[in-house]
Amino acid sequence: MKPRVIIYKKVDQQVLDYIQNTCEVVYFENLDSQNYPEFLQELKKAQGILGSGLKVDKHLLDQSPELKIVCNSSVGYDNLDVTELSKRGIMATNTPEVLNETVADTIIGLMLSAARRMPELDLLVKSGQWTSSMGETWFGVDVHHKVLGIIGMGGIGSAVTKRARFGFDMDILYHNRSRNEEAEQKFGATYCTMEELLRESDFVCLMTPLTPQTEKLMGEQEFKLMKKSAIFINCSRGKTVDEDALVTALKTGVIRAAGLDVFVQEPVQEDNPLLSMKNVVTLPHIGSATSETRLKMAMLAATNLVSGVSGKIPPSLIKTGVQVK
Ligand SMILES: NC(=O)C1=CN([C@@H]2O[C@H](COP(=O)(O)OP(=O)(O)OC[C@H]3O[C@@H](n4cnc5c(N)ncnc54)[C@H](OP(=O)(O)O)[C@@H]3O)[C@@H](O)[C@H]2O)C=CC1
Ligand SMILES: O=CC(=O)O
């Protein structure tokens, strides 16, 4: 009998076909309050699940006695309670590396947009306010030859660094818990404390995973350490930032601008003050969202799923302490 699995996000037909070769698939193109009860029913019989963002905690796992593997189609896995998964001997996987270059493109886009005020100027042109002389009220600041500070120099941070160093002649500072020698040797990135990074960078890019240690890593004190002219970019998770402190820093000129792909609440609430600020460029958590990369992510998640339910070691197993036999 084929192992029974649930897919809870829309995937490409070729991904579906690949999984269906090995598994009996229950397919929810998306999960909402309407189909959630049906999903819970199906979960009782499922050996594997694939999707992104579903909170997989003790409560959910209590309702999934057959589960062997949980496959995120994302690199971040803050939605998974890995301790609880590990206790129950359930494997967890993510999709690292295949999205690095695409997310790095998004981050460079946010840096350029915020520095050169592209969304503001786009609106101005489209609303017929382009006057013959666009004076200095509309000037931006340069990106090239500035200092970029990366908090979280991992796969994505390194791809940003490559672009910034070789494309924009930027100097790169970074902060991790441990040194990334490859980034130092290949791209000339310099390791420093978080305080040094915040004081010296013209652009601060936050790229850590969301963990208990990184929750609100950027707060009032951290923004105050930054240059008044600095631009803050967050493409990690909304909760790595104290959003109230960010609003105050942007409103009171503690920092110049921000580019944000992620928010504490997603989709972001309409009355979030960040949405009405001209010095903030926003995106709807779309860092990896190109057709090519989303397909690679889904295919990697599918490979993880099929391996896991077939008793093999999935290619991107998250280290949860689960012993794979
Ligand atoms: N907006 C979007 O669409 C996307 C968002 N993301 C987010 O980006 C995150 C990073 O992805 P990726 O680069 O692939 O991950 P990696 O694991 O490759 O890199 C994460 C880096 O963060 C560092 N780090 C972890 N904890 C801390 C800490 N407490 N203080 C300082 N540095 C820390 C790690 O170094 P060390 O262990 O030495 O501290 C590591 O270098 C994901 O977890 C996800 O949340 C990812 C993809 C798309
Ligand atoms: O947010 C996206 C991810 O891959 O993590």
TrEMBL record:
Stretches that traverse the bilayer: none
UniProt GO MF annotations: glyoxylate reductase (NADPH) activity; hydroxypyruvate reductase (NADH) activity; hydroxypyruvate reductase (NADPH) activity; NAD binding
Keyword vocabulary terms for this entry: Oxidoreductase
Domain D-isomer specific 2-hydroxyacid dehydrogenase NAD-binding intervals: 108-287
Catalytic activity: (R)-glycerate + NAD(+) = 3-hydroxypyruvate + NADH + H(+); glycolate + NADP(+) = glyoxylate + NADPH + H(+); (R)-glycerate + NADP(+) = 3-hydroxypyruvate + NADPH + H(+)
Residue ranges annotated for the D-isomer specific 2-hydroxyacid dehydrogenase catalytic domain, each copy included: 5-318
Pfam family, one: 2-Hacid_dh
InterPro entries: D-isomer_2-hydroxyacid_DH, D-isomer_2_OHA_DH_cat_dom, D-isomer_DH_CS1, D-isomer_DH_NAD-bd, NAD(P)-bd_dom_sf
Keyword S-adenosyl-L-methionine tagged: no
EC number annotated for this UniProt entry: 1.1.1.79, 1.1.1.81
Any one of the GO CC terms: cytosol
Family of this protein: Belongs to the D-isomer specific 2-hydroxyacid dehydrogenase family. GhrB subfamily.
Protein name: Glyoxylate/hydroxypyruvate reductase B
Organism: Peribacillus simplex
